[in-house]
Amino acid sequence: MALTEAGPLALTSGDSDTVYKPAGVFTRPKSGATGWKSWLTTVDHKKIGIMYGAAALFFFIIGGVEALLIRVQLWAPRGTLLSADQYNQVFTMHGTTMIFLVVMPIGAAFANYLMPLQIGARDVAYPRINAFSFWAFLFGGVFLNSSWLLGGGADGGWFNYAPNNGVIFSPTHGIDFWNLGLIITGVASLAGAVNLIVTVLNMRAPGMTLMKMPIFTWMTLVTQFLLLFAIPVLTAAQILLMMDRLFDANFFNVAKGANPLLWEHLFWIFGHPEVYLMILPAFGIVSEILPTFARKPIFGYPFIVFSGIAIGFMGWGVWAHHMFVSGIGPISVTTFALTTMFIAVPTGVKILNWTATMWGGKLSFTSPMLFSIGLVTMFTIGGLSGVTHSVAPADTQQTDTYYIVAHFHYVLFGGAFFGFMAGFYFYWPKVFGYLLNEKLGKANFWLMLLGFNLTFAPMHILGLQGMSRRIYTYDAGYGFELWNKVATIGAFTLASSIALFIFNIFYSKSKAKNLPAPGADPWDARTIEWMIPSPTPEYNFDPIPTVSRVDDFWYRKYGETKDGKLVRIAATDDVVQKLSDGKHIHLPSPSYWPIVLAFGMPIAAYGLIFNLWLALVGAIIIVGGLYGWVLEPPDDPEASHDDDGTDTHASGGGDAAVTGTSESADQSNELDPAKEAETVG
Amino acid sequence: MPRRSLTVRILQVVTLLVVTFLFAALVAAAFFNDGKPLTTLSPSGPSSDSIQKLVVPVFAIAGVVFLLVEGAVLLISWKFRAKDEDDPEEFPEQVHGRTFLEIGWTILPALILAGVAVGTVMTIIDLNREEPDSINVQVAGQQWWWQYKYDVNNDGNFDGPEDIVTATEMVIPAGRPIQVTTTSNDVIHSFWIPGLNGKRDAVPGLRNPLKLEADEPGVYRGQCTEFCGLSHANMRMLVRAVPTGDYDAWVRNQLKDHSAEPTDPKAIEGKKTWLALCAQCHVIKGVNDVKAKTTPVPLVAGVAPDLTHLMTRGTFAGSIFNLYDPTDPDDPSVLLPAGDVASAGNPGAALTGGAVVTANVNRVTLEAWLRNAPAMKPMYPQGGRGMPNLALTEDQIDQLVAYLETLN
Question: Which of A202, A501, B127, B257 shows a CA-CA span of 20 to 30 A to A659?
Fold first, then answer.
């Protein structure tokens, strides 16, 4: 909160000639700059969201290639593409990459980009911390993957059980990279969680009470609370492991009296909430898309919201269902079997509410709608197989077989990733200003549905008929050949659907010149992010709208009669905001320091592995980064905006036409979130 | 509505047909468990059977829910699809929710699950009930094989002189309950004989219980199911259920040692090699009761397979190779792993201490193993985890096999 009032560092904007600087104070980079340099110093939640998405898709390709290597190895008995050692590294890095560097950051990408728009904020609460989160994630991910070039990847599985994760059993540095890399991405997640929670709680547009928030924002809030409490548990476990591996401590040394189940408990106390925080953002996305294309409201908004919250709470009481066979005793097994069964209830509620949303609607099967229905149908399969794990005696047969692999891919690919694909197709015009080609999009969907099911459905029967997980080879004579071949064919089909998606991005971009711009509201959508121009202007809203109900934008376009009939009350063009020059809007200034601070962390981590002097260099960069960050002036001195204490929104325009539901747009002058953000971020 | 594309339509129909056919084929496949030695769907003992009795109705319920939900989504998608002739400004009825419906579909699944919970708890109790008159066996996992200790005199101690130590294969009497205790000498493993019961992790420092019982004599295969490092995939196990009389004979034979000198000159030479090299890690009771302390790289697990009665087993090296009934009959030079043949290396009369029929021994594979074990199964001998390449000469290998063949 410091540094805003009079004092040696108070760089009052527009008044730069009276300032003197102590050592280490740099002016902030120019705002409004473009080109690649502007991305390095940006604190704009939209650019950060796009970078999260792009980085995640890059890691997705790495993780996808690893998946294809696995499938080729298992095509036939006694596969020879990979050695046992290579295979163990590949499946470990596949799981780690897909979870920590793909699904979580895509969730973060949507949360970063969309959530501030959905609540009518200028930016997140702490814009520089937001930039820091992204860079820490990216550097952590690159650090983790650099292990491939520095002696091999981690080979202990993504769950990395003790004591197999110790130096005796894994003498290469792979697990050190895994450990330190995930500590770094954990810092990123934690900083992001605090940031987004504060944003949702403090920076909503006037009138937007919690129960008027869009469901995606609700799910983001629940997700960030899960991250806030789950990540520290993993980080604590990883610091213990780091002590063991790098400094000969004995936290997991059985010979010195350690109980290796400690790691399992810590890992899954993190690991199960982790599952929910990966799926909830996708649930939020489809909860926005289904009503849009059914042309009726979400069925039971409070039930969807509260079931999400219920999942967020109950998700903490089910971790030991990952440990039914580890010897925790029949009482614990029974307890966790029952809690696991009943977490299916709020999840089932969501499925049924989505189905009821579609019932009676007027469904148009656009690409986002198809992917959303894909989530509903495919996640249902994952949910049902999940219930069979809660039947603990059955789980003693199924756990650590391919049945589990099938289950969680139906949850994480069929659930989370289908939801993300829906979100990509839905929000692409808002983010990039052009629509993705619908024909390619539909082909993309059907090909992905085909490839996905061919890959993962056979794994159910493979597991039930005894194929163990994490095996680099299997013999003829076990009856595994047929379904492994089907799965490998499916994996390549799935890969081709991803290739089609990437092709669609570039194809649609090249065709976009000749097509009419999508405009603010290409889907006739419901929530307020659709009332601003596409692509989103840097300042988001001008003016900040006042919200009076759920789906506020929809009810600016349409009114509802008492008997549930919908009538148009305003033309979309009159309701949406026009592009303004945004000159009068005070936005947070870019900063050099988030990327510097984040860069220090992998340097320190390399140092911990290879040479402690290098760790010292990393530590100096971190401390220097913090120093620069703290002393940085609050503004780019050349940023021009009215500094009379109240940014004016007079030129906004659009809201004048709003009728009926929202009337007092100019009240928003009293609450300018960007102003708040600036002083604290 | 954009113009419909024929390509997309074809892709859609193909996908829906293929996926429907795929699901149907998968359900059908669950009923064909012949030739699938690790299947969980064809129980051969009381514990696996009570799991099966619980699983089948749960799968049935899940199947019904699956059909209802997926059917409803597909039907709704068809019935309420927007049509080209629709007026885009005409909207469906704006339903915001129906509280009683939503409470209904919160309570209904909870009730179904409560029913499943009752069955689950009863089965858990059943699986944990202690059986009278069971045989106590301690199963210890280590990279990448299994050790079995039988408490023959039932004094609660597995290491007495009256007790049995063996490896790789577990011999049990059919129709009699076995109380297994799992543990580990290095990392976490998981002991799993799907035909007989679910799995139980073998955790270093812990003693976890598991009941096993086979209804009929036969060979029941298993696979380590907790990732345990390099050769996790090659860490298999095998339960040989035999008639009670054979079991008693097997126990009597296992209690003997091999202090008598071999007679065959090759075997005499082989024993010298054994004492010089193999005895650094392995034990033959009556020959080197305690392994020598000269191991160049100490074993992390502290123990290698006890080979006193090697030839009573049908498989070796973590049950991945057959010790008997060896090679491809058409080409004896081709090594066949255990999973390739229906029979799991039948030791014949040698199982209970009878003579070894040397013509049936899988010499090709055994020699290859002695020539360079890490080439046959990924191991990490330089770190004390697994068997090293001992750089034996062909003569030494020949003599050593002759000696090993006497270990009935």
Answer: A202
Is residue B154 assigned to a domain? no
Residue B138 lies in a domain: no
Question: Per-residue pLDDT for A645 more than 50?
Answer: no
CA distance B20 to B67: 11
Is the pLDDT reported for residue B113 higher than 80? yes
Residues with Cβ < 8 Å from A536, sequence gap 6 or more? A46, A117, A430, A431, A529
- Inform me whether the C-beta atom of residue B71 falls under 8 Å from chain A C-beta atoms: no
Say what the alpha-carbon torsion angle A184, A186, A190, A192 is, to the nearest 10 degrees.
70
Concatenate the DSSP letters of all residues of B155-197 into one string: SS-SSSTTSEEEESEEEEETTS-EEEEEEESSS-EEE--TTT-
- How many domains in chain A? 1
B97 touches chain A (CB under 8 A): yes
- In chain A, how many H helices and how many E strands? 21, 2
Q: Span A236-247, mean pLDDT?
A: 96
The domain in which residue A446 lies consists of 36-591+632-677
Worst-scoring range by mean pLDDT, A383-392, A654-663, B20-29, B333-342?
Answer: A654-663
**Angstrom distance (rounded) from CA B407 to CA B254:** 11
Report the residue from A84, A259, A325 with minimal CB separation from B231: A84
Q: Is residue A7 part of a domain?
A: no
Interface check for A392 against chain B (CB to CB < 8 A): the answer is: yes
Domain that holds residue B332: 265-404
Q: Which residue in the block uniquely carries the two structure tokens 């009934």? A: B325
- Assess if residue B119 is contained within a domain: no
Give me the mean pLDDT over the A450-462 stretch: 98
Which residue among B66, B91, B99 sits closest to A381, beta carbon to beta carbon?
B66
Q: What is the CATH number of the domain that holds B356?
A: 1.10.760
Contact B38 A560 (CB under 8 A): no
Question: Closest approach of chain B CAs to the CA of A468, in angstroms?
Answer: 6
Q: In this structure, is residue A598 part of a structural domain?
A: no
The answer for B 131-190 residues in CB contact with A (under 8 A) is: 143, 182, 186-188, 190
Q: What is the DSSP letter of B380?
A: B
CATH classification of the domain holding A571: 1.20.210.10
Touching check for A73 and chain B: CB below 8 Å? no
Per residue in B180-230, pLDDT tens? 999 999 999 999 999 999 999 999 999 999 999 999 998 999 999 999 999
B232 within domain boundaries: no
Predicted pLDDT of residue B292: 61
What's the gap between Cα B157 and its chain centre?
26
Is the residue at A102 inside a domain?
yes
As for how many domains chain B has, the answer is: 2
Residue A614 inside a domain? The answer is no
Q: Tell whether B382 lies on the interface with A, counting CB pairs under 8 A.
A: no
**Contacts with B, A 47-66, CB within 8 Å:** none
Cβ contact (<8 Å) for B55 and A302? no
* Mean pLDDT, range A296-322, rounded to an integer: 95
Q: Which residue of B has its CA nearest to A92?
A: B227
Nearest to B206 among A78, A327, A564 (CB): A327
With a cut of 90, say whether residue B293 has pLDDT above it: no
Q: Enter the ipTM.
A: 0.95
Asked if the C-beta of B227 comes within 8 angstroms of chain A's C-beta atoms, the answer is yes
pLDDT in tens, A416-446: 999 999 999 999 999 999 999 999 999 999 9
